Amino acid sequence: MGRLVVIEGLDGSGKRTLGAALVEAFQRRGAKVAQHAFPRYGESVHADLVSDALHGRLGDVADSVHGMAVLFALDRHGAREQLLRDLENYDIVLVDRYIASNAAYQAARLHQDEHGEIVEWIRQLEVDRLGLPVPDRQLLLRVPVDLAATRAATRDRVRDTYEKDGGLQTRCAALYDGLARIGWLAPWLVLDGRTDQDFDQLSKALVADA
User: Fold this and answer.
1) Beta bridge partner(s), residue 141
2) Where is each Thymidylate kinase-like domain found (predicted)?
């Protein structure tokens, strides 16, 4: 049985770069790796509805915290069987954003903390009701909010309403820190996104967990 390793962090924190480097490091160690990223824009109708909502194309849908949480969760549920197959066939299943992203962003929208009602509601929805596999390890790539915003602003695409909201991003960063601090859902490892990582050592530790 493989290990489900999740990379979390703000938009612009460098999750994609970290993921690519970790895949190379895992493969150098002889580990078989599968990758996933959420939301699955262009692949999942629920992810595309998320995109439409966040860009103002679904009326007031984006105003509903619980409604958006359900759309994000259903996107992951659509990949559930593939995730389970990959966990059977690969040593590491590496995921860019997962259940904690939903908890962090929706709690931040409601001005709740890591102990807030919405955090537990999302856990019950995604794990208990939808049956998504629980991560074995979660990596929080922590960077200053202003640095993440600068990186996100340079991307060649239109930023969505979550990305444009600096206050939301600041609260979300605090939520991620809180979730990591209490070990929500699975053990967390916090990485400083401003410094170079020793990917070989990090991959060694994650493979050793298996």
Assistant:
1) 191
2) 7-180
